[in-house]
Amino acid sequence: MSKLFSELTVGGVTFKNRAWVSPMCQYSAVNGLIQDWHAVHYGAFITGGAGLVMVEASAVHPDGRITPADSGIWTDQQAQVLAEIPRFAHRQGTKAGIQIAHAGRKASAKAPWEGGAQVSVGEGGWQSVAPSAVAFEGFTEPTALSLSDIALLRADFVAAAERAISADFDVVEIHSAHGYLLHEFLSPISNKRTDEYGGSFENRIRLLCQIASEVRMVVPATRALFVRISASDWIEGGWGIDDSVALSRELKARGVDLVDCSSGGTSLAQKIELGPGYQVQFARQIQQEAGILTNAVGLITTAEQAEAILEDGTVAAVMIGRSMLGNPRWPIQAAADLGDEIPWPNQYARGFTARS
Ligand SMILES: Cc1cc2nc3c(=O)[nH]c(=O)nc-3n(C[C@H](O)[C@H](O)[C@H](O)COP(=O)(O)O)c2cc1C
User: Fold this and answer.
1) pTM over 0.90
2) How far does the centroid of ligand 1 lie from the alpha carbon of residue 352, in Å?
3) Does the residue 290 lie in any domain?
4) Which of 67, 279, 295, 266 is nearest to 171 (CA)?
5) How far apart are CA 211 and CA 213, in angstroms?
6) At 169, which CATH number?
7) Cα(353) to centroid(ligand 1), Å
């Protein structure tokens, strides 16, 4: 049996394999409610053999949406509709996760296929918020969060996690990557605060650590808590891998089960060294030095590549994004490529079982 298709237990959750679907925004929700599109989209991955399907960034507050059409988890009704995904996943032996998110200073934008520019308040957008009144390139200046706003934000993340658990998600992932709100607090490029949430490393990681501890209290030991980070800003003087290792140790101490290692998103000045598996080094270093499980993500496209990443055990799992969009049954194909066999859904099995 390959490593890719061997079981993995993280926290209280055992995944049937380590080929996981990365969270991917669909910008197709209405008032934060997922639609038919999402049922088909996630259904395809669930019937495709993935061990974990991570639902896209879902906003903990309406102001935390990247676009007006983002998925949300700030109401109970949204959670009730989202519950269809774990219900369907569990029937296929797949685990379901959800990324809980706030877009910070990159909120109130148009969908990528509409150009991605910011939507003004007059056009139905909203005033964005951030650690400091420092704009992301091309976006308007956000309002700096006050201490009482931060207290409310912490409560929003906890309430979202509670809803995710009530919707029967196996995994809650806190989104602290890609230049969105929690990453904005981590990075000295976007965090210019002078209170206890800014300045020193300890102050910049304070909010994420508080949210991780508080969310852990509502995510039972039978589930798993992940945090997605940008392991590097890829900018001189920005957040870097050593910061990520130190942060990951703190997250582990607060009960986080796994760090999902992505990178970038703080500034257009980033100089990303793109190439196959370009973020794998971060996942390896964090798992080895911080002693917490990690997953790699980013330009992992083939079964052989995924297997090579997992082989020596220094990364626990891989998340795959665009290759899953291209072929939602990537895991079934990958298993065949590695000489393993994973079952087709019963409904399809007749088409793929040798008949005498
Ligand atoms: C359409 C699309 C939407 C995405 N939305 C999210 C998201 O909601 N949350 C997130 O953390 N990353 C998001 N990403 C990044 C992916 O999760 C993934 O990290 C990235 O695409 C790199 O992996 P890949 O090379 O396998 O695609 C998105 C990527 C794509 C292509």
Assistant:
1) yes
2) 31
3) yes
4) 295
5) 5
6) 3.20.20.70
7) 34
